[in-house]
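Per reviewer request, we include the raw input and output of the structure prediction for the construct analysed in the revised manuscript.
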Amino acid sequence: MIEYPNIDPVLIEIGPLAIRWYSIAYVLGIVFGGIYADWLNKKAPVQKNLKVFDDFMMWAIIGIIIGGRFGYVLFYNFEYYIVNITEAMKIWQGGMSFHGGFLGVVVASVIFCKKNKVNLWVLFDLLACAAPIGLLFGRIANFINGELYGRVTDVSWAMVFPAGGPEPRHPSQLYEAFLEGLVLLVVLFFVANYTKLKQMPGVLAGIFVSGYAISRIIVENYREPDEHIGFLFMQITTGQALSFPMLAIGLLVIAYSYKVAKKKEPQ
């Protein structure tokens, strides 16, 4: 067993103002993700440059925050928040859903692209390459907060989380940081820079969506289900139930993008 580091979730506290690691993770994810996506955009890893990408960043932030919070309220604790509506607005108390944030960014992207007359799939591809950076920082913040811990286990790297009782558990937040963050980042970097798939708008987005879904489905087998929800059916968690449709959508996007690109090739 490895000792849990028990890092204070609050980085700096000045009077009533508290800066938490979770907030820092969101900021770092958006900043570094934006810088990385802008670098890829200038390299044109996809079919053409998206010249208004910098203008989209504020749209992305709004989509992440509103979608992430709305998704958490709807998918994970609806019965509580429908009675305590004002609590739903207190995002600084934690509670964000990736699936909700994902949908929020999708909606923001569609509106932005229609408004600015730009290629939606090109934008999706850039966002797909950058998103794992935010996931990496976010899951590390979950680990620091001691939340979303894993199931009870006897593996040698198990940890006792303060909020998880006396039994050692999987550090599932680190599993997610590795698969959803680091592995997806490396895979998409390779595809975007060293394969012909980069010339097929939508493929990178499809790889991200399906890759995230696979990673989440795997790690959910080691992550403790939310106490107030538990398993939905047949040991399926809420995270898995939301990820199965994502996997199907991601694979369909890859197939569709590949088919469209092949049709455009000279015969």
